[in-house]
Amino acid sequence: MYGDEEATETKAEPFGRWLLRQRDRGDWIDGLADAARGDRQFPRDGDPEAVRSRMRDMSADGDAFAAIDDAELHWLAY
C-alpha cells in the first residue's frame, strides 16, 4: 500500500492542472477552480502543497483550505 506522498508523486496530471479543468461540479471546488483560473501566478504544475502555499500567500480563508483538502481527495481518486 502506498502512502499519501507516494500516491501524490505518481499522479500523471499535476494537481494544479487538474484543478484548473474543474468546472460546474456543484461543490466547493468550483469556486477554488474559478479563483485559480483568475490567478496568473497559480502553480499550474504544482502539487497540493504548492497550491496551499499560494493560497497562504493570497491570505485565503479557512473555507478555501477546506476546498483544497476536498479537491486533493478527488484528485487522488481520479
Summary tags:
78 residues; 62% helix; mainly alpha
Outline of the structure:
The protein is mostly helical.
For the largest beta-sheet, the strand count, sense and barrel status come to: none
Rounded average pLDDT? 89
Shape: globular
Number of strands: 0
Strand content is under 5%
* Helix/sheet category: mainly alpha
**Low-pLDDT windows of residues:** none
Helices and strands, in order, run as HHHHH
Secondary structure tally, helices = 5
Q: How much helix is in the residues?
A: 55-70%
**Cα distance, first to last residue?**
17 Å
Q: Count up the domains.
A: 1
What is the CA-atom radius of gyration, in angstroms? 12 Å
Mind explaining what this structure looks like?
The chain is mainly alpha-helical and about 80 residues long. The chain has one domain. Helix content is about 60%, strand content about 0%. The protein has helices spanning about 5-10, 15-20, 30-35, 50-55, 60-75. Helix 4 packs antiparallel against helix 5. The model has no long low-confidence stretch (mean pLDDT about 90).
Give the secondary structure arrangement, pairings included.
Elements: H1 4-9, H2 15-20, H3 28-37, H4 48-57, H5 62-77
